[in-house]
Design brief:
It is an enzyme of class 3 (hydrolase). The protein is α/β, with parallel strands linked by helices. It has helices spanning about 10-20, 40-55, 85-95, 135-140, 170-175, 180-190; strands at about 1-5, 25, 65-75, 75-80, 100-110, 115-130, 165-170. Strands 1, 2, 3, 4, 5, 6 and 7 form a seven-stranded mixed β-sheet that branches. It starts with a strand and ends in a 5-residue tail after the last helix. About 40% of the residues are buried.
Length: about 200
């Protein structure tokens, strides 16, 4: 089976490799459009758009496309990737000393050996609790460069780990891909798993 990840995220590719899935990376170039304000629905919309975009460019059978999108929801606001260091500071400030949710939506499009298409999608939520941070810690972390390509302006697998008190849910979901559930969904969708 040809497996294609419709995301340029190196973290998602690494997570797939961690569970033994070697995926071809073809990032989606779709202009993202969101109609919902509910985090779980937003990530399903975005992951679906990415998977559709890439699947539409592929030919052949026995191919699986994985689309994924992650957002952070804090205090009723959806936090995407910061556009500037100042925005990263504001996001981190809003997360410090409180809890927030990380949602990852995953959309799978599978074209079987006969060319029939099957689809499934799911959203995973993880609660993240952050220790209080002083202003110096906020400015230092926001300025380290790590927050700039990450939803919510932090990477739990990086320096921000120093400020994470605990999580409730799937750690890998916070990194960007809930690979345990993804593996189970792939098995269900494709009728098994042959490495």
């Amino acid at each position: 089976m040809r497996i294609v990840l419709a995301s340029g995220s190196p973290r998602r590719r690494e997570l797939l490799e961690q569970i033994g899935i070697r995926a071809e990376v073809i990032p989606s170039s779709v202009e993202e459009k969101v109609t919902s304000t509910v985090p779980g629905k937003v990530v399903l919309e975005l992951s679906g758009q990415k998977a559709e975009d890439v699947a539409g460019k592929l030919t052949g059978a026995d191919v699986l496309v994985i689309g994924a999108d992650t957002v952070v929801s804090a205090g009723g606001r959806i936090l995407g990737k910061p556009g500037s260091e100042k925005e990263a500071q504001e996001m981190i400030r809003s997360l410090a000393g409180t809890s927030h949710q990380v949602y990852t939506g995953v959309s799978l499009i599978y074209r079987d050996r006969e060319g029939a298409e099957k689809r499934t999608a799911f959203a995973e939520k993880t609660d993240v609790f952050v220790y209080p941070m002083d202003e110096e810690e906020i400015l230092s972390y926001a300025g380290c460069g790590e927050p700039m390509d990450k939803a919510g302006a932090y990477g739990i697998q990086g320096r921000f780990a120093a400020y994470v008190e605990k999580i409730d849910g799937d750690y890998n979901n916070v990194v960007g891909l809930p690979v345990g559930r993804l593996y189970q969904e792939i098995k269900r969708l494709t009728g098994g798993w042959n490495r």
